[in-house]
Amino acid sequence: MAAMAKLLLLVGLVLVGCAAADSHRYRPGDAVPLYANKVGPFHNPSETYRYFDLPFCAPDKVKDKIEALGEVLNGDRLVDAPYKLDFRVDFDAKSVCSRRLTKDDVVKFRHAVSKDYYFQMYYDDLPFWGFIGTKPEKADAGDKYYLYRHIIFDILYNNDRVIEINVHTDQNAVVDLTDDKELDVEFLYTAKWKETQIPFEKRMEKYSSSSVMPHHLEVHWFSIVNSCVTVLLLTGFLATILMRVLKNDFVKYSHDEEEPDEQEETGWKYIHGDVFRFPSNKSLFSAALGTGTQLFALTTFIFLLALVGVFYPYNRGALFTALVVIYALTSGIAGYSATSFYCQLEGKNWVRNLLLTGCLFCGPLFLTFCFLNTVAIAYNSTAALPFGTICVIVLIWTLVTFPLLVLGGIAGRNSKNEFQAPCRTTKFPREVPTLAWYRRTIPQMAMAGFLPFSAIYIELYYIFASIWGHRIYTIYSILFIVFIILLIVTAFITVALTYFQLTAEDHEWWWRSFLCGGSTGFFVFAYCLYYYRERSDMSGFMQTSFFFGYMACICYAFFLMLGMVGFRAALLFVRHIYKSIKCE
Fold this sequence. Notes:
Number of helices: 16
Order of helices and strands: HEEHEEHEEEEEEEEHHHHHHHHHHHHH
Number of strands: 12
Helix content: 40-55%
Structural class: alpha+beta
Largest sheet: 5 strands, antiparallel
Strand content: 5-15%
Radius of gyration: 29 Å
């Protein structure tokens, strides 16, 4: 336990970073770190390139900043910027460099301006953005393309600390890029310092202000109210319908037990000898449950870190670092959950089940990553992971994830828990009667996924705008409430549909409950199609591949996690109702 506590403390230090070591205090004239990060089309957030891939003023030797794992996964490639902004030193129209742009340079800059390229930099860990040029709003044949050559930095300070930085351009200092000809350009920059009373502790509030503006807060709370109404309606439905029906069933079956010869068994009691018959493909079923349990634990830990403030806006790559580290540390949960349940189902080949558990989510994710990383390499994008980073991830999986998975599997194998079934299972299964079309798997999944999705779809827009846009999402408390509501609605609707399935004398509810619980993932992926077409301006093969590739993996993770929740809720319900009657 002490070793685990130290490990978690180390993880926390890695995520929070070494900000405490850097006090961010400067004296007049001190050099303040300024890093250029990346450039790319504004509407394609995944399609990013190194800053000096464009022919800006570059030093003789570009110095890369050493970055953490999460920063590299995020596509950050920080280098020393060509500008020097010393603390509280004002100057006007200082020359960065004078250079001759070749025809190829002009073509590169014109292409960048036509695609609305932006640049991102960090000054004293404060991110800021700007466009590299301008073009007319309507793209006609005779349009002009202009490159900004004079950047103006407005910097606010409070005593000895940097508080805020904004960047804008001199609209009169532009270079016409319309024609393919060589150009002589002098790049300039200006620094203006102003004092402010904003404390250092609140300097990041401007980046999260868009999430907490009154209009957006109203939408967020409307989302919460909408979700709560959905939960209350569903709860009321279960309370007034299911409980009343169950009560009538219990009375009816008790009367049948007193007079067994007068009436034949019907309904869900009729299949008591088959309802706990183990499902087909129990190794795959157990692996899906184990993987879903691990993803649920991962999501819970991520929310806990978010609620305590680890993912503040300028903590670069903290979320990706947390996902990699916590996924590795929770792999033991997947191994234990899958193997213990597999053994309860009287499975024999637990080693194969353990390997299947380890590959069920990692396998599709790895194949997707290989394809997308190849695309990023072809585009020479910063989204392509360096070979060293790939080796680090492989080492984490080899030295942490897989050993913990095996240890969890061994613990699950040795737990020797027996499956708790209130009724004995008959030797031969009953034939499932012919079902109406709306009682079959696909219509049931559609009904099961719609209600949970309706409880979260409003909040989905803000999450998508943060992941696939330039908004910063900071209201994690509201998101956590929405997540809890999602779990409750998923559990309730799966229980209701399982009851209706049993009343139709269909005892094959195991896989059905998992599929119904996870069907929200399909609705989320359908929302991806809508968002891409109607709510975003993304384009190009690389951005489209990244969007649908990684969103397919996220929706698959949703499917496994919510499928586990749906099955666990249905299992508790089925055990409860069959405990309440006398089964022979």
